[in-house]
Design a protein that fits this description.
With about 260 residues, the protein is mainly α. The chain has a domain at about 90-150 and about 190-245. About 40% of the residues lie in helices and about 5% in strands. Residues about 5-55 and about 60-70 have low confidence and may be disordered.
């Protein structure tokens, strides 16, 4: 759960009041729930003409051409959905897509930098493209959600202070200019995750690490309590390193068949 505003930490493991305005990014795209203008399909099929036209006639050929002519609208590309730790939840696809959408907008500072400690979390990350880096952050947030709320979007902790999947304090959400700024709004899983992306997109690039501590907690650990537990960090990192988007190509490439074995 976020434990601090930008500034001193007031209570370990929870979000502190945020009086400053640390994030100035445009948040009009948060969360990713836009609509596409798909246009209107042409409904003419030429069926009445074909019914009275003999096979091979001009009318028949013209109708066939109308059927076979490809649309000028671009074909939607298939989207790769990364595996997340919340995959057993009915909202899994929504949460994953909302996080991916946030990472493509106000969360882009995360995928454009390489944290100094990333080898602990995702060895393949430095050489990965932006999409694969985004997959890591989706997986990371799903692993953190396990320890924050056990995947419950309606979770409320601290006697009514921290809300949702990643236990965000409403004052912290307001300080970072999240769209979800009340306890009830933060119970929406997609909005909660989008807000978390906004917070991490400030703290991780600022500190250059996923987790760190010198005079104070750094990176994600500056705002989320489970990151301050060595046991919970180890659990998260072990799960992440097993995912395909975090394994170097050399580790997943099929091994050469030993000599002497039959084909």
């Amino acid at each position: 759960m976020p434990v601090s505003k930008p500034g001193p930490v007031s209570k370990p493991g929870r979000a502190a009041e945020a009086g400053s305005d640390p994030a100035k990014e445009d948040h009009s795209a948060e969360p990713g729930t836009g609509k596409e203008d798909t246009g209107k399909e042409d409904k003419e099929s030429g069926a009445s003409v074909v019914a009275s036209a003999p096979p091979g006639s001009g009318a028949q050929v013209e109708a066939d051409l109308r059927t076979l002519t490809p649309t000028l609208r671009p074909v939607a590309r298939s989207e790769i959905i990364p595996h997340a730790r919340w995959s057993h939840r009915p909202e899994a696809l929504l949460w994953t897509r909302a996080t991916m959408s946030a990472l493509k907008t106000h969360g882009r500072p995360l995928t454009r930098m390489v944290p100094r400690d990333i080898a602990t979390w995702c060895p393949a990350y430095p050489n990965a493209d932006e999409a694969a880096r985004g997959a890591f952050w989706v997986g990371f947030m799903s692993a953190l959600t396990k320890h924050e709320s056990t995947y419950r979007p309606d979770a409320v902790g601290g006697g009514g202070k921290w809300y949702g999947l990643l236990q965000i304090l409403p004052a912290t959400a307001r300080g970072y200019k999240c769209l979800a700024r009340t306890g009830e709004a933060l119970k929406d899983g997609a909005a909660n995750l989008s807000c978390a992306v906004r917070i991490m997109a400030v703290t991780v690039p600022r500190d250059g690490v996923v987790h760190g501590k010198d005079r104070k907690w750094r990176g994600v650990s500056a705002d989320w309590g489970p990151m301050r537990s060595a046991r919970k960090r180890a659990d998260m990192a072990a799960w992440l390193r097993q995912q395909s988007y975090c394994r170097p190509i050399s580790s997943i490439r099929p091994r050469q068949r030993p000599k002497g074995l039959g084909s």
